[in-house]
Design brief:
The complex is a heterodimer. Chain A is an alpha/beta fold. Chain A contains 15 helices and 22 strands. In chain A, the strands form seven sheets. Chain A has a five-stranded parallel beta sheet with strand order 3-2-1-7-20. In chain A, strands 9-16-10-11-12 form a five-stranded parallel beta sheet. Chain A is globular, with a radius of gyration of 22 Å. By secondary structure, chain B is mainly beta. Classes of the chains: A alpha/beta, B mainly beta. At the A-B interface, strand 9 and helix 3 of A face helix 1, helix 2 and strand 4 of B. Chain B: This is Proline dehydrogenase. Chain B: Keywords: Oxidoreductase. Chain B: GO terms for molecular function: iron-sulfur cluster binding; oxidoreductase activity.
Chain lengths: 466, 100
């Protein structure tokens, strides 16, 4: 074999792109494997090409960064250094002797046929997805995740409805509310459960990032321009409607997490875009045997070079802990440089990525503070009525989940699942795990999922021997 | 303002698909979910247990709430599947299979 060492990058969002570009620029042959039709990930999700968007920039922030990534990718694809496999849904990465790796993907959108990419090293840049904590009515059509509303807008140029309430907690709510308003939705309210006091407590750490403060001020200006009512220290108590959303009840939270008496009021809307922060996709890393770390044991542990503890496997971006696109870029860049050196049999010189490392430390400190300021709304679990569906796939209620823990003594998510089916359905617990953990007091641990997505039996049967 | 105007889109020619026997316009490049949203439809599945309506929730292929039957095949994620001219889209009842 005279071929240059070969890197497989899973995920074409900011982290994966930065890693692929940094490695390719240093001579590594890269295969970029991604589920979407176009690169960008969730953050830089592009409108589908046939929609002919001549100003996709209007849907995005930090467009120049995207242009740099996109142009770099095009350059390396035309030179043959990077192979970009679109519509490839990776369901497992396997270690093979060599050492080498087999990256197994399903070809979309049908996802009935499999394909395997062999590589000497793997960069996991699988990103994250949104955490939504349940409340009565959250399964009604018209209730969508905040990120989902944004993804449908960016990719399909559609709105979920005419009158939207954006609610939950976290920095994502700002671009979602301003984005929907700019696209013509009436945003009736932005309901953020963190109060001004919580944000002030972490002010020093937050103020250490002037660029982020400026971003916050910019969003505040946009919200004012679109006349969006901003309610901090408030929460959505319930979504109302029979077969689709008609209104939400909103109330003020006291500092102890209780509802301020008399503060509940109804806001008519046909859409609720709701989210309570993000979770990392860790399935591929878990199956490979990478140690998962983070505050809740739900992110991939990586060292200063972005290496996991499995030789030959690197990780960058949200999968190593939620921190946004700028942090993902820094981590991806470092990973790509480390991979290029290590595949060449050299130890890399960390001084060569000192700027990226500084930005990585700064952004991690910032997001730790942000995380502390934007906790889930206190008291949400106590307010959940017994008949509220918690596991959306298997339609398991809060009452059933509570019984599993209180009466039957389940002490971990797996036992709750075996007793109640909560987490056993199509989504494999990705949606309900944080809620089940919060309701039962069980620790939120990343579930081991040997298949990161449903795989047809025929594809498994057709796999070559490793 | 609407999203197409905001992004100054010049989409390809619109076509028609059937949703529960009713014609619905769609644009090339849109997913099944996007076309249904644009037509004001937000639910296209009823759950196996309580028979409750569902549609898009996560919008990025993770939650499987938006499962729908397309051209006789059940359990397609509407938020991922691109809509094609002539598609026959049906509300998915339960598992979407006869053995339900």
């Amino acid at each position: 074999m005279t071929e240059r060492a070969h890197l497989a990058v899973v995920g074409a969002g900011p982290a994966g792109l930065a890693g692929a570009l940094a490695a390719a620029e240093r001579g590594v042959r890269v295969t970029l494997v991604d589920a979407a039709e176009q690169a960008g990930g969730q953050f830089y999700r592009q409108p589908a090409r046939p929609l002919g968007a001549r100003r996709p920039k209007a849907l995005h922030h930090q467009w120049h960064t995207w242009e740099r990534l996109r142009d770099g990718l095009e350059r390396h694809v035309s030179s043959g250094r990077i192979t970009h496999l679109t519509d490839h849904h990776v369901w497992s990465v396997q270690r093979a002797p060599g050492p080498s790796f087999a990256v197994h993907a399903l070809l979309g959108p049908a996802q009935e046929e499999g394909v395997t990419v062999r590589a000497d090293a793997v960069l996991l840049a699988t990103g994250g997805y949104e955490r939504v904590l349940p409340f009565p009515g959250w399964t009604l059509p018209g209730v969508v995740t905040a990120g989902g509303a944004q993804a449908m807008l960016k990719g399909g140029l559609v709105l979920p409805g005419r009158t939207v309430v954006v609610a939950g907690t976290g920095p994502l709510l700002l671009p979602v509310a301003t984005g929907l308003a700019a696209a013509g939705a009436r945003v009736a309210a932005l309901v953020e459960s963190a109060g001004p006091a919580a944000l002030l407590r972490h002010a020093p750490a937050l103020a250490a990032q002037p660029a982020k403060l400026a971003e916050g001020a910019w969003y505040a200006g946009r919200l004012a321009r679109h006349k969006v009512r901003v309610l901090t220290g408030h929460t959505v108590l319930e979504a109302h409607g029979t077969d689709r959303l008609e209104a939400v009840s909103v109330a003020a939270l006291r500092r102890d997490g209780r509802i301020r008496p008399g503060s509940a009021h109804r806001v008519p809307c046909d859409t609720l875009a709701v989210g309570h922060g993000m979770l990392a996709h860790t399935d591929l890393a878990g199956t490979l045997g990478c140690t998962l770390a983070g505050t809740e044991g739900t992110a991939v542990r990586a060292d200063d070079e972005q290496r996991t503890d499995v030789p030959g496997v690197w990780a960058a971006g949200e999968t190593t802990g939620i921190g946004g696109a700028a942090l993902a870029l820094a981590e991806g860049h470092i990973a790509g440089r480390s991979i290029a050196a290590r595949l060449d049999g050299r130890a890399p010189d960390p001084r060569s990525w000192a700027a990226a490392a500084r930005s990585r430390s700064r952004l991690r400190r910032f997001f730790t503070a942000l995380d502390a300021a934007y906790g889930p709304p206190a008291g949400w679990a106590e307010r959940l009525t017994g008949d509220t569906v918690v596991c959306r796939c298997e339609e398991v209620t809060a009452g059933t989940v509570r019984t599993a823990a209180d009466a039957l003594g389940a002490g971990d998510l797996r036992t709750v699942k075996l007793l109640t089916r909560a987490g056993m359905g199509w989504c494999q617990g990705r949606m309900c795990a944080p809620a089940v953990a919060g309701l039962t007091g069980c620790p939120l641990t990343a579930d081991r999922r040997p298949f990161a997505r449903p795989v047809p039996l025929g594809v498994l049967a057709g796999l070559p021997d490793a | 303002m609407n999203p197409l105007e905001l992004a100054r889109a010049r989409p390809g020619e619109a076509f028609t698909v059937l949703f529960d026997d009713r014609p619905v316009p769609a644009l090339p490049g849109q997913t099944v979910a996007a076309a249904l949203w644009a037509a004001g439809v937000t639910a296209w599945r009823s759950t196996r247990g309580a028979g409750r309506p569902r549609g898009v929730f996560c919008g990025i292929g993770v939650c499987f709430d938006c499962l729908v039957s397309v051209n006789g095949r059940p359990n397609r994620r509407a938020c991922l599947v691109p809509v094609q001219p002539g598609d026959v889209i049906r509300t998915q009842e339960g598992t979407g299979r006869d053995d339900d």
